[in-house]
Amino acid sequence: MLVVISPAKSLDFKTPPVIHNYTVPEFLNESEKLIGRLKTLTPKKISALMGISDDLGELNFKRYHEWNLPFTPENAKQAILAFNGDVYQGMNASTLSKEKLILAQSKLRILSGLYGVLKPLDLIQPYRLEMGTKLKYYKSKDLYTFWNPLISKKVNVAVAESGSNVLVNLASAEYFKSIDRKKLKAEIVTPDFKEFKNGNYTMISIFAKRARGLMTRFILEHNITDPADLLAFDYEGYGFNSRLSKKGNPVFTREQ
Fold it and tell me: Fewer CB within 10 Å: N-end or C-end of the chain?
């Protein structure tokens, strides 16, 4: 079983890593090409391209110009510990055992606009480049065009190496679109998470993101290999809701 998740805009490069093991992203040559393209943009053009504030435009202009190879533990950090958004706060990877963090190398992949596909312990340097960004590079009109063949092939390899043909999609729609589903040799399982509010079960983005991280942690802690075992997920009050679920789309709900 392989799990895919999205990266995060929030980053933490100040907290020391809890593990010294690391790997290096497989698509750094492609990342370097994108960085070269991004270095040609002014802070204002970065802000306009990404729809971000002038301050964030300046910050990422600086990040792109400081990005350099080779990656080492001195100038980079493991992805699963560097990302710090809602999904990663739910996963709370820094409190996982070393054994589980190493297990994650074979069970988890992080999709990225700059790095393509990341293993959890792959080193990354600070960046912001969402997959939906309309960044043109040579014949690629956007990042989906740039990454799709590479990501699809690499995810297929990772699924095969996981010993199961199941792919658990815990990524956002924006990032899962980077995988060509027609070329994917896997059974896709996409869990959803909903809250009971005003008499109905509703997906609330901030809670759903955190729940994706909780589910990722659940899979790692229990070394889940059979999708049927996902139905036992019960972290932070969630429970399987058979009435709302359908094949390939288990729904987990909780009362607010």
Answer: C
Order of all β-strands in the sheet with 187-189 = 116-118, 108-112, 2-5, 166-170, 187-189
State the virtual CA torsion across 52, 55, 56, 62 in degrees, nearest 10: 140
pTM of the model: 0.97
With the CA atoms of 70, 107, 163 and 233 taken in that order, what torsion angle do they form, in degrees rounded to the nearest 10?
Answer: -170
Conformation bin of residue 44: beta by default, left when phi > 0, alpha when psi is -120 to 50: alpha
Give SS3 for 138. Answer: coil
Strand order in the sheet with 192-197: 200-202, 192-197, 251-255, 239-240
CA angle 144, 150, 152 (to 5 degrees): 80
Token readout for 21 is 């093991």
Check if the beta carbon of residue 93 is closer than 8 Å to that of residue 160. Answer: no
Helix (H) or strand (E) holding 98: helix 98-107
Q: What is the pLDDT of residues 101-149, one digit of tens each?
A: 999 999 999 999 999 999 999 999 999 999 999 999 988 999 999 999 9
